[in-house]
Amino acid sequence: xxxxxxxxxxxxxxxxxxxxxxxxxxxxxxxxxxxxxxxxxxxxxxxxxxxxxxxxxxxxxxxxxxxxxxxxxxxxxxxxxxxxxxxxxxxxxxxxxxxxxxxxxxxxxxxxxxxxxxxxxxxxxxxxxxxxxxxxxxxxxxxxxxxxxxxxxxxxxxxxxxxxxxxxxxxxxxxxxxxxxxxxxxxxxxxxxxxxxxxxxxxxxxxxxxxxxxxxxxxxxxxxxxxxxxxxxxxxxxxxxxxxxxxxxxxxxxxxxxxxxxxxxxxxxxxxxxxxxxxxxxxxxxxxxxxxxxxxxxxxxxxxxxxxxxxxxxxxxxxxxxxxxxxxxxxxxxxxxxxxxxxxxxxxxxxxxxxxxxxxxxxxxxxxxxxxxxxxxxxxxxxxxxxxxxxxxxxxxxxxxxxxxxxxxxxxxxxxxxxx
Length: 420
Ligand code: EPU
Hints:
By secondary structure, the chain is α/β, with parallel strands linked by helices. Helix content is about 30%, strand content about 30%. It folds into 2 domains: about 1-20 and about 230-420, Alpha-beta prism (UDP-n-acetylglucosamine1-carboxyvinyl-transferase, Chain), CATH 3.65.10.10; about 20-230, Alpha-beta prism (UDP-n-acetylglucosamine1-carboxyvinyl-transferase, Chain). It has a 4-stranded mixed beta sheet with strand order 22-23-1-24, covered by helices on one side. Strands 2-15-17-16 form a 4-stranded mixed beta sheet.
């Protein structure tokens, strides 16, 4: 079993280069299934979710050539299947994009129920509502989701809840549909815009991604023959920014889009941290102990749930009592059990957690319950006194490229150890 061993505290110093966005990559990869041609994707993050997706694409008949660890050329002219086994799909959440993509391309799909981080109830009713509105018949039984349509016809779809996955899945299913699809109340995350930009580069006609209404004019075919570069990962950037503050450091975060980080920059400044934006990079530095803050996670452009645990580590060491209200996921405070083992004073109940800031955390053996919890525990380990051992690393490897190497370059004492 692998574990990360971190000895702290270390104030992070130096530069880190942000990789391509995980949550854009895991939508763009299945989107290649809609192309009757060849395309090249650059700036792919080198993470296990991307590798899993490439394996699934190959099992469906796609030909993938790795030009470098961050660039692939995909040929989806000769697909030979519309079925993905539950063995493949249960390993990660984003496998649900196969439904929209294969329904769009083949008008028929059968995929295993998606897995992913355990963050509480993760319904897909809004995805299904969208597919049905476009004319598909959808069935969920025996661990599989099947969807089938004679024709997919554009229509207006109002999302009852703002959902990243449902917005992207409906975009995928409607790109090749007849007529126009309107999605009202869609998610507006940078990866929604990135998926639309990718599809448009390949020949789709999608307008308004990132606004309150997305309009998809169906096209007959996506020809591809183009190259697309994935947007930088704003959650990875935010993770390092918060690590700089928690560790009392001073770092430069390179290759990021500062516009995507406004809610994080505002919170860091509110608690007394310092941020200086300069083109595609940011300097983030600590100058005094952070003060308390209240945070509510919200869909973009609000404060992202995917940075809530990392922010929790900062507030656990801030001056005063902070409150975090997690409005997206039911079970995203599991990391607070681990932080308590490190000396934090946190009470979590339901979707609210109260952080009574302590002067310092102390190292302890802890376990990553999900991807962002894992990132938060690394930050905690770097800022804590003593040795922290983090178990259950598969979650972390699913979404962060070379995380320990990137932290090591910033001065962290962090090693991956294989424990028999
Ligand atoms: N929801 C419904 N019905 C649906 C879909 C969602 O009620 O049909 C609810 C969910 O229960 C949740 C809220 O709507 O309360 C938002 O869920 P959303 O669909 O936006 O989440 P998701 O698409 O499953 C993606 C990211 C998550 C990220 C959320 C929110 C991917 C693969 N996953 O999940 O990322 O937390 O959006 O931004 O893009 C992560 O990267 O660590 C991660 C968990």
